[in-house]
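Hi there,

I know you've been waiting on this one. I reran it after we fixed the sequence typo, so this is the corrected version. Both the input and the resulting structure follow.
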Amino acid sequence: METGNKMSLSSILSADAIDSAIKDCQAPDSFCPKKFFQLCGLTKKSPQDVKKVFAILDNDASGFVEEEELKFFLQRFSPGARVLTDTETKAFLCAADDDSDGRIGADEFQAMVLS
């Protein structure tokens, strides 16, 4: 797993904001994507920045974030964070996956964050 990507997340979002967003959803099944995006400051960012964050989450650079990658969503923001539960992962996917192809594209991600 390359760590080159990690740096760019903290250049977009403040470490304090990421920290409070992670702390807010420490309990299993307490993760809410929209609330997380607000707390970490992503909702106030430009579409370009949101696309950059998407690229970091898209670990295999497929142009999509699949369910397997979503599971480790929080760890992209903070390596010590927990993995999402199956329930959280599926809810996240359902909330963002507008065309029901079982994965989140860059435009779907942006629409979810900035809506």
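Quick highlight: DSSP finds eight helices and two strands in the chain.

Best,
R. S.
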